[in-house]
């Protein structure tokens, strides 16, 4: 896939020349295709952050410092009694049953402390259903910090970002609404300052480099990260560690999206073809972003 092909797919998806969309694609170890050219801006990647949070957890598992069968109460004893029924793996695979009313808390304190303070009960028994939970990944980030004995941003910098030369990628918890020099989100809806569910700011080249590192298993955790979870009764899920794992024809597809007012994102990897792409659109049109991602996926898996 060359730059002209990518540009054509961008146009066919409905993006005009002035629309703020950032696209990166890479086949095997060939130089990446980046549109537009020039220095890539730093943007909020919303729920794509979950891959990095999950990777930090996986590194701690590999080091023997975190057991996915340990209870949430083991790491966060300050939570109510229900935390004893939640396992770390429930957080990873969105089967925790954690309750957090996104609409009710949309205009409230979206720091980690604010999200954790809003957790007061479970909506369902842990392990019985898949229910996507941002709050679960905020808890997972706290578990990572306590297992690592240091703040999540520092652990991620030392064990993910620096070793992989993701030089423009970082967690950001404020107090400013965005890192210096970053492209801000919708001014009416600053990016949340909670860590784990979101909190990461990055660029298209860095996200392609992340895909490449997973392809080559540079951290020694790729197999674990892409092992799908299951319910407690054994029912398989198509969600692994911060990433969806599905099959398309003969290809395994690793994919996750993200959105917040002012940004919609898709990160896709096709491990059998050593290829992948990222779409970061600085708008609110999730359908258009998804359409472009689907068109690029079709082009890469003919």
User: Taking Cα atoms only, what radius of gyration do you get, to the nearest Å?
Assistant: 19 Å
Question: Helicity, in percent?
Answer: 25-40%
Pairing-aware structural class of the strands and helices?
alpha+beta
The number of strands is 9
Q: What's the total helix number?
A: 10
Q: How many strands, what sense, and barrel or not for the largest sheet?
A: 6 strands, antiparallel
Tell me what portion of residues adopts beta-strand conformation.
15-25%
Task: Give an overview of the whole structure.
The chain is of the alpha+beta class and 302 residues long. 31% of the residues lie in helices and 16% in strands. The protein has 10 helices and 9 strands. Strands 2-1-9-8-7-6 form a 6-stranded antiparallel beta sheet, with helices on both faces. It has a 3-stranded antiparallel beta sheet with strand order 3-5-4. β8 and β9 form a beta hairpin. α2 runs parallel beside α6 and α2 crosses α7. The longest helix is centred in the middle third of the chain and has 15 residues. It is globular.
Describe how the helices and strands are arranged:
Elements: H1 3-12, E1 21-27, E2 33-35, E3 43-44, H2 49-62, H3 72-75, H4 88-92, H5 112-117, H6 134-148, H7 152-161, E4 170-171, E5 200-202, H8 204-215, H9 222-225, E6 244-248, E7 251-260, E8 263-270, E9 275-281, H10 286-300
Antiparallel strand pairs: 1-2, 1-9, 3-5, 4-5, 6-7, 7-8, 8-9
Helix pairs in contact: 2-6, 2-7
Features:
302 residues, globular, 9 strands, alpha+beta, three-stranded antiparallel beta sheet, single chain
């Amino acid at each position: 896939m060359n730059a002209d092909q990518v540009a054509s797919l961008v146009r066919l998806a409905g993006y005009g020349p002035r629309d703020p969309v950032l696209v990166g694609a890479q086949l095997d170890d060939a130089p990446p295709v980046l549109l537009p050219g020039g220095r890539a801006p730093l943007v909020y990647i919303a729920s794509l952050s979950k891959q990095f949070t999950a990777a930090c957890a996986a590194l701690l598992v590999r080091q023997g410092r975190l057991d996915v069968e340990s209870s949430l109460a083991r790491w966060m004893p300050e939570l109510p009694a229900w935390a004893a029924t939640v396992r770390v793996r429930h957080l990873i695979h969105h089967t925790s049953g954690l309750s957090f009313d996104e609409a009710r808390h949309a205009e409230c304190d979206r720091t980690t402390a604010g999200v954790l303070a809003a957790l007061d009960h479970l909506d369902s028994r842990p392990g019985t259903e898949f229910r996507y939970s941002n709050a679960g990944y905020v808890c997972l980030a706290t578990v990572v910090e306590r297992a690592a004995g240091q703040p999540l941003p520092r652990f991620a910098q030392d064990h993910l970002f620096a070793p992989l030369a993701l030089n423009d990628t970082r967690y950001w918890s404020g107090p400013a609404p965005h890192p210096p020099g970053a492209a801000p989100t919708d001014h009416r809806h600053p990016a949340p300052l909670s860590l784990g569910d979101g909190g990461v700011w990055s660029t298209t080249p860095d996200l392609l480099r992340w895909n490449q590192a997973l392809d080559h298993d540079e951290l020694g955790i790729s197999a674990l990260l892409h092992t799908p979870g299951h319910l407690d009764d054994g029912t398989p899920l198509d969600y692994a560690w911060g990433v969806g794992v599905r099959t398309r024809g003969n290809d395994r597809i690793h994919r996750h999206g993200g959105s917040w007012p002012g940004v919609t994102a898709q990160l896709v990897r096709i491990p059998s073809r050593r290829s992948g792409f990222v779409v970061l659109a600085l708008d609110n049109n999730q359908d258009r972003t998804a359409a472009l991602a689907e068109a690029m996926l079709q082009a890469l898996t003919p």
